[in-house]
Amino acid sequence: MAMFQRDRGPGELDREAPTALHTQISDAIRAGIADGTWQVGLRMPSEPELAAELSVSRGTLRRALSTLIDEGLLTQTPGRGTFVSARPEPPSNEGELRGIAEDFALQGLRVTTRVLRSTVMLPSTTVGTALHVLADEPVVALRRVRSTDSVPIALLDNYVRADFAPGLEAVDLENETLFDALENRYGLRIGHARRRFAARAASTEVATHLSIAPGTPVLHLQQTTVLTDGRPVEYSDVWINSDEISVSTLLERAPRPEGTA
């Protein structure tokens, strides 16, 4: 059985791209699981068969499969093989995904953006884990400050997979939002995001950028943005001056079955 016959053949692996082959393979398999091409319970071809189909070494293939095993999407059973065990976690029906700039705009705030850093770099362990890239696979690192009436209200550190958005570091993100750039310039389809909020004491670095005293309580937001095919594209750390601004979320109640009280 040819695992990549429908959407991606061995010749479609881009061997000149900065993205490692094992990452391209794991991304393709993850996308196939997400869209239902490869159903839960499907037995994968053997490693020699799949490596031959993709024209890659077994070591490269094993790295790709290990990524998906760590994510819980594949399971290996000694003597039986490798099976699809789960689909990528779908978005919950908890609200509408908006970028921070969009959220501020809905509150009637006129926000300006200043870019402090826009470069390509190697990821930290936290960023690499969130974006499913290895330590030697580059990401675009952005640091921006958003202000209203010249008062800093948010410090944003964003990390984007460089293979998904080549040249993003040169885009004018003072006059264009990151989500707009990813969707309109690169044709990426953003599906959902996972957010975690926590109250933190501002570090000296954060306090300097937000023009507050070190130790002042701030709202810390961690976000991983995921494409519609299940691949993570962006990870961010955002520190918000909660004395100046709040983050709102639009929640929609899921339809209830007929006949329920």
What's the gist of this structure?
By secondary structure, the protein is of the alpha+beta class. It contains seven helices and eight strands; from the N terminus they run αααββαβαββαβαββ.
Description:
This protein has 261 residues and is α+β, with helices and mostly antiparallel strands. Helices cover 25% and strands 28% of the residues. The protein folds into two domains: 75 residues, Arc Repressor Mutant, subunit A, CATH 1.10.10; 141 residues, Chorismate lyase-like (Chorismate lyase). Strands 3-4-5-8-7-6 form a six-stranded antiparallel beta sheet. The chain has a two-stranded antiparallel ribbon with strand order 1-2. Helix 1 packs across helix 3. The longest helix has 14 residues. About 5% of the residues have low confidence.
Question: What features would you highlight for this structure?
Answer:
261 residues, alpha+beta, Arc Repressor Mutant, subunit A, Chorismate lyase, 2 domains, six-stranded antiparallel sheet, two-stranded antiparallel ribbon, 7 helices, elongated
Look at the structure and give the mean pLDDT: 82
Please estimate the helix content: 10-25%
Q: Which of globular, elongated, flat, extended, rod-shaped describes the shape?
A: elongated
Class per helix and strand makeup: alpha+beta
Total count of domains: 2
CATH topology of the largest domain: Chorismate lyase
The tally of beta strands, per DSSP, is 8
Percentage of residues in strands: 25-35%
Largest sheet: 6 strands, antiparallel
Q: Which strand order do you get reading across the main beta sheet?
A: 3-4-5-8-7-6
N-to-C series of helices and strands: HHHEEHEHEEHEHEE
Gyration radius from CA atoms, angstroms = 21 Å
Number of helices: 7
- Residue runs with pLDDT of under 50 for 5 or more positions: 5-11, 91-95
Q: What name goes with the CATH superfamily of the largest domain?
A: Chorismate lyase-like
What is the CATH architecture descriptor of the largest domain? 3-Layer(aba) Sandwich
CATH class assignment of the largest domain:
Alpha Beta
Distance between the termini: 49 Å
